[in-house]
Write a structure and sequence with these properties.
Helix 1 links the parallel strand 1 and strand 2. With 384 residues, the chain is an alpha/beta fold. Helix 9 runs parallel beside helix 11. The chain contains 13 helices and 14 strands. It has a single domain, classed as NAD(P)-binding Rossmann-like Domain (Rossmann fold, 3-Layer(aba) Sandwich), CATH 3.40.50.720. The protein is globular. The protein has a 7-stranded parallel β-sheet with strand order 3-2-1-4-5-8-12, with helices on both faces. Strands 9-11-13 form a 3-stranded mixed β-sheet. It starts with a strand and ends in a 22-residue tail after the last helix. 39% of the residues lie in helices and 19% in strands.
Length: 384
């Protein structure tokens, strides 16, 4: 297939590009590189330095024999060039990772909240219109988030909810109660994409992803010696919680659990993220279909994750005041059967996975910046 990856320089975009190229797909990469600027702005960086995208692609093509191609482009501001790329490349599918991914970043200042929503919502809108102009039958695979749903007191369905009201039935998008301006931008995306399917007949799969952990894929392991790893963020702004806990254990500082740690979330291995995208490619949405998959494999309370890390890696837990506004304990029952039904075989979180991540982090322990581990952004009356 001809696959266009938007946000190909990112934590998920880069291993996805390598993987799909090695499966025989013709992959074209697009990224604005703005995530690197956001990291510099916030004073954080990945555990291991990530080479420039052009250098990564040149090196991958050299050592793998594959032929990734790329463009540097901000899809939120340059719809003309995006339209040209679509017309030239004529993708069968578009994987859309190209968004600001951090809730804390979006809650830190007015300018960053605006930047998050401008980048994310306008980028998706530009994509929708450019697709209609250049390749209207293409399948858009959009990375959403389980954070769109919030923590409702009823079961979370996969995107849609069947309701009965005053004796009448209807099927509606599941009500959303996001917890940050970042998550709210994802809600706008979902509604805009559903509108495009309903009005224009677009084809969209919205992957509502849980919290991703790890760096180990077949390709990152295979090509790590050539500097082709993916970025591993552990800081309190762009890092995910399990990655952060393992780094804290590796450098001997307490694991920072926000509040009592009773918040429940969905989790998945980075290898499963890539496999879910591949399954969506192989089983495309129908014309006019807005399809939602809840993309996670297990759910845990944050305290449970911390205890698992302590059990494998040692360390102690520090319950700190929660900088976010969220329920400490809540009902959480999220359906996630659609991807299993089309072939997902999950990598479940266990001691061996945590041990492998811990050994990886320990091999780069000298690069850890412990000043970035504790939260500095508060949802109320805060900012940096």
């Amino acid at each position: 297939m001809r696959v266009l990856i938007l946000g190909a320089d990112g934590y998920l975009g880069w291993p996805t590009a390598m993987y799909l190229a090695e499966q025989g797909h013709h992959v074209h990469c697009v990224d604005s590189l703005i995530k690197r600027w956001w990291e510099m702005e916030m004073g954080v960086k990945p555990l291991v330095e990530v080479p420039p995208l052009a250098a990564r692609i040149a090196q991958f093509n050299k050592v793998s024999g594959e032929k990734l191609s790329f463009d540097i482009l901000d899809i939120s501001t340059n719809e003309r060039r995006l339209r040209e790329i679509l017309a030239e490349f004529l993708p069968d599918a578009i994987i859309h990772y190209a968004e600001q991914p951090s809730a804390p970043y979006s809650m830190s200042t007015l300018n960053r909240a605006v930047e998050t929503q401008r980048n994310n919502i306008l980028g998706t809108l530009n994509l929708m219109f450019c697709v209609q102009h250049s390749c209207s039958d293409v399948h858009i695979i959009k990375l959403g988030t389980m954070g769109e749903y919030g923590t409702p007191n009823i079961a979370i369905e996969e995107g849609w909810l069947d309701v009965v009201h005053e004796g009448r039935k209807d099927r509606v998008l599941y009500p959303k109660r996001p917890g940050s301006f970042y998550h709210l931008s994802k809600v706008f995306d979902s509604h805009n994409l559903e509108f495009g399917c309903r009005i224009w007949g677009s084809r969209v799969t919205d992957l509502n992803q849980g919290i991703v952990y790890g760096t180990s894929t077949d390709q990152t392991d295979k090509y790590r010696m050539w500097g082709l790893d993916t970025g591993f963020h552990y800081d309190s702004i762009f890092g995910t919680v399990l990655n952060r806990f393992i780094v804290q254990a590796a450098c001997g500082v307490p694991l920072t659990v926000y509040g009592e740690g009773g918040q429940t979330r969905g989790f998945l291995d980075i290898r499963d993220t890539i496999r879910c995208v591949e399954l969506a490619l192989e089983n495309p949405a129908a014309e006019g279909e807005f399809r939602v998959f809840n993309q996670f494999t297990q759910q845990f309370m944050i305290e449970e994750i911390a205890l698992m890390v302590v059990d494998v890696c040692g360390g102690v837990i520090d319950h700190i005041p929660n900088p976010r506004v969220e329920a400490e304990e809540h009902f959480y029952e999220a359906k996630h059967t659609a991807l299993l039904n089309i072939g997902l075989e999950p990598h479940l979180l266990g001691h061996s996975t945590i041990q492998g991540m811990y050994e990886y982090v320990c091999s780069h322990r000298d690069k850890i910046d412990t000043a970035t581990l504790r939260p500095g952004i508060k949802w109320k009356g805060g900012g940096i």
